[in-house]
Amino acid sequence: MSLFRISSTKILELQKACPTASILLRGLSAEQTNLKSVLQEKIPREQEKIKEFRKKHGGTKVGEVTVDMMYGGMRGIKGLVWETSVLDPDEGIRFRGLSIPECQQQLPKAKGGEEPLPEGLFWLLVTGEIPTEAQVQAISKEWAQRAELPAHVVTMLNNMPSKLHPMSQFSAAVTALNSESTFAKAYSEGVHKSKYWEYVYEDSMNLIAKLPVIAATIYRNTYRDGKGIGAIDDNKDWSANYCTMLGFDDPKFTELMRLYLTIHSDHEGGNVSAHTTHLVGSALSDPYLSFAAGLNGLAGPLHGLANQEVLVWLEKLRKQVGDNFTEDQLKEFIWKTLKSGQVVPGYGHAVLRKTDPRYTCQREFALKHLPNDPLFKLVAAVYKVVPPILTELGKVKNPWPNVDSHSGVLLQYYGLKEMNYYTVMFGVSRALGVLAQLIWSRALGLPIERPKSLSTELLIKQVGK
What we know:
By secondary structure, the protein is an all-alpha fold. It has 22 helices and three strands. A hairpin with a 3-residue loop joins strand 1 and strand 2 (92-95).
């Protein structure tokens, strides 16, 4: 009998009887290239672990809520379970415990490539384990095979006006894919809740597979000649197929996209796109509807549009100081920006208190592949000047750059200059994290999200007591 057919109950018995069995059993998944099979063995163990944890510590307090937190957008309130990543103020993002440099080092890469494949990150987010090359190749092939769009979505995309914002097109197309939802169909037929995760898994795999096709069609229709994007190649990875469909054949651009799609995938659960997807999914809306809602949040200027604002600001700066600027010229422009009541876009973060590791890895990519690009040189110079000024200002908790400070500059260099499209690419990436979590939310039976709200009048009364 195959080891992978050991029952989940038997696995739990083995783990309790022999602690070292956990290490042995974890190794089994390294031989299995079917992600769903790995999950079928892993989920019962996690369910049991959480059941025991809640039984022992269900009444334990993990934080307190202040009035400022309630009026300040719930900043700092510990109120979500998010398995796939955790954002530490000082260390930055960790995907299942691994930092971005560790992911770059340990996750499988394309043949001859240097950056991690997003398929490998998705496996890590879903299972908590570093995948083998065979496992990543299996995901690449499976996504290629699931990528075909239904005819009605193709017709819809091809008939959208080019003046409609790319994110509106993206969200609408994902919503329309709801017609293909296996979860919605199974739920309507009365499937048992213990099986929810399996249908959410199927929807999530199908959706992730189709996103590059949707995104590339939007790009071609809006900014190019609108001609067909070509067929998906089963022998190419997810990022490579996306780049080909976009019309970019530079191998370095493909490497950039592998990095971009990996590092933008997840940023714990409190950001707007992640939280929205989780919230809508908690109502048992299918993954298509849930992710479409998350995309609408991502489209906001305080979230996914931020890198556009950085580029606009940089172009204004470059127009004033030129390419042979001095540090004093930069300082003058930055102080002028701040004194006018504006912020320096791309600096600061709601949680981070250090340079965003996503900024750092993009900076390293630029130093390796485009060190002499004028716009990159400007970004590098701003990086030296802005933090001391913001520190001197004394009002900024985090004077360091975030991911948005750099991503647009790299895309511009390789010829993808249409800024309104950048958030679509962000959305393609963010699907990896939020859908991996959605699978686990249904596997763990997390309930509908329904926090209690108070009016200002009632809050004043309660605080007064």
